[in-house]
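Dear U.,

For the methods section draft, I wanted the exact inputs and outputs in one place so we can describe them consistently. I've listed the two proteins in the order they'll appear in the manuscript figures. Please don't edit the token lines directly; just add comments below if something needs changing.

First protein:
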Amino acid sequence: MAIPYANPWRPNYEARALAMWLAVAMVAWSTADLWALHGAAFRWVATLALGFALTWLPGTLRLASRQEFLRGYPLEFVAPTDFADQMPQWTGNLWMGKGYDWTAQHTQLALDLMREGPERFAPRDPQRIDPLHSFNRPTELVSRVAALIPSETGR
């Protein structure tokens, strides 16, 4: 069975749900004898809450391991000149990478990464003056695409 896609950069909401169900189970079990009500009902609630917590466990572990895996590898970027040296047959078309088949899931991952923004992964240095403060994502993308298109002078 295929695992449905989940954005790996989102908060781990499953871990929060797991923690809450475990807290409900612990409180219900530990306070069962403190109430004037029948204690077995509280133990049943605790058992059910533990069962609900176990249903959240696979998703929590899956997302946590994916996030841990992504934390282990820094982002790498290739300068256009280095890329041109590595790929002499490059004709200026959009290059999506090499070494694997680019599928719809990879496209969704790239889109989610762009939505998160580079600040999440490489925070800006507050001491540095940014002369390009108006150079935002749309203008950056346009300038990068424009750099790939050959000019009339042939450069």
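Second protein (the one for the lower panel):
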Amino acid sequence: MDGRAFFALAGVLAFLGCRAVVVELRRAVKGPVAEVGYIDPGGGHVRYALRGAAFFVSQRRKDALKLAGRHCGGPKGGSKDGAVKIVKEWAQEDNETPYNAEDLEASLRYNLDHYRVEPYQHLLFECVRPP
């Protein structure tokens, strides 16, 4: 394997480790008349894994904030004002259960637990809408 292929493969693997997950999204709800504005500006819940090197954790956080901004109408999501307000943030250990047959079969064959407990950072956010 030459140097360029190695660095390309390393870049792809680094990118795969830098993903956040959307847990829940709330759509914005406008009032019955224009003077009311928004009843609920929208928001949601995203999480990202805390395992691994600090670089990967920071990339996952950036990805989580990018997902939140995109939901609120930020870049590639519509308007340019996709401002996000973090309402609550906490670390929590979540159970990760594989749902595909290959992963489940392999863990049960060797009498391993069929789930993993991993630390995640959770972010609850609200969209900031212009009045």
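Candidate sentences for the figure legend, describing the second protein: The longest strand covers residues 83-96. The longest helix spans residues 54-71.

Thanks,
Y.
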